[in-house]
Amino acid sequence: MGVKKPKMLNPKASVNKMCRLFDKTKQAYYKQTNTIDKSMVKDEKAEAIAEKVKYMKKKLPMLGGRKIRYLLARRKINVGRDTLFDILRENRLLVMRKRKYARTTQSKHWLKKHNDIFNCTLIEKPEQAFVSDITYIRIKDDFSYLSLITDAYSKRIMGSSLSQNLTREGPLKALNEALQNRIYKHPLMHHSDRGF
């Protein structure tokens, strides 16, 4: 991977003459030349590493960055972790993680969708409106679903239920608990999103 020094335009002109002509020092000339050399070596090394990684990934497409670095080191190719990840990123060789998430709302359904009167209502007292929501909790490789009923005024959780699936039993259990925990008997609005 030897890099040739850039050729002078006029081979008869010395470095001293050229530096004086452009009002530069010899030190500045050699510093610039070395910088060009180093960047060219760096680019060539990065290209060589990228080619080796592409070859590895033909056999093992899901090979991750840490394992690649280990395999390169075994072949006496030493490269820093951050530099390697930069090379992999530039050449689109990183394995992208698939995020696993749970979908808790299905808004596109055939059931009747009621108008949203909650956002037009001024909440002035406790237990005037309950808000329900479902969130998921990751447990190892699976999910559990937490149904919550919250008082819109005080933000107090009035009812909750943890279940292993998204059937209606979880939200209904949370709603029944919230209704049993009521203190006041004035009319109550129950708000949820449009999903089921």
Please state the overall shape, judged from the principal axes of the Cα atoms. elongated
Q: How widely separated are the two ends?
A: 64 Å
Range of helix content: 25-40%
- How many DSSP helices? 5
Task: Give the percentage of residues in beta strands.
Answer: 15-25%
CATH fold call of the largest domain:
Double Stranded RNA Binding Domain
Structural class: alpha+beta
Mean pLDDT over all positions: 77
CATH architecture of the largest domain: 2-Layer Sandwich
Which stretches of 5+ consecutive residues score pLDDT under 50?
Answer: none
Oligomer: single chain
- Rg: 33 Å
CATH top level assignment of the largest domain: Alpha Beta
H/E element string?
A: HHHHEEEHE
